Predict the 3D structure of the following.
Amino acid sequence: MIPDYLERLARELSFDRSLARNVRQEVEDHLWEAVAADPTGNMLAAQQRAIANFGDARAIAAQFAVISLARHSRRAGAAAVLVIASVFIAMRTRIAWNAAAQLAIGEEDMRAVSGLVVLIDRYAFWLSVIIGLGSWAYIVSRRIPAGFYPAYRKQLRRFFVLCCAAAAALVVSVISDGVLTALLLRGTELSAGFLVPVFSMAIEIVCVGILVFHICGIARRTASTAALLNT
Amino acid sequence: MLKGHLDMIVLAALSAAGPAHGYAVIEEIRRRSGGAFDLPEGTIYPALHRLELAGLLKSSWMTADSGRRRRVYTLTRAGNRALIQRRAVWKQFSDAIGGLLGGTRPRENPA
């Protein structure tokens, strides 16, 4: 009887595998302890009573869904900051390498284009820094509610918009970096010196991918939490 | 009414019992409330996880005498501070309600 209940609870918690594993172990310990403490000595009745006292698996899973959502939102906020920091490091490394390798844009007209792209890159990047830090500070300073209340939904929506804005600004910055790198490497012969700019660009693209993945994760989890609470 | 104060109740039980697992926390709440707070046991676990995420509790896994894995919760320093704060707010609230119901004036808040 208890294993069946635990199975049902783990199934309801399938939206977060590590949480499901931990909660299952915790609840298993709880239920068997309640059975051991039962004064009647009737094993079957004691198990029934322990499960009934514990509550409906779906209702408990719904409470955990809110906590899981809060945990992942905080993680996404931290990921946004780390991703932006990583892009910054990749960018600085490439700039230092370009200077050391004396790489420069040759054509006059391309130099004018690159000046504009550098400007866009700079503003987009610092905008992503400000919004990214803001979104992280916003989500960690929110209280974790006991339920999926409208006020919390509103906070999550704000956080989601901030994350999307930070990601959009970062995408613009990375595209600008890509354009600048392409202009720089255009016409130069293929050599080992290509590796650093190309590799740093790859890091930036992966970083943006990670951020987008986290943002999609929040949207998915918010929808599944709402669905779990509505059924 | 209990639901709104569940966090404070859990913090108080852990403060009184010391490091404890979920079942022991429930037992402590039941014992200290004289059986008045006989809440659905499953609601304690989301509260414990929420308080841990908020940094008010920390947990560690150990193996119980039964051989089962057991998660033991401990109050953090931030948890202790939060409990002191909530106790003060509760005391003020309870004095005010006591004053209203019993007709006695609540003590002025020195702050």
Summary: Chain B touches chain A through 23 residues (CB under 8 Å). The longest helix of chain B spans residues 77-102. Helices of chain B lie at 6-17, 22-32, 44-53, 77-102. Chain B has four helices and three strands.
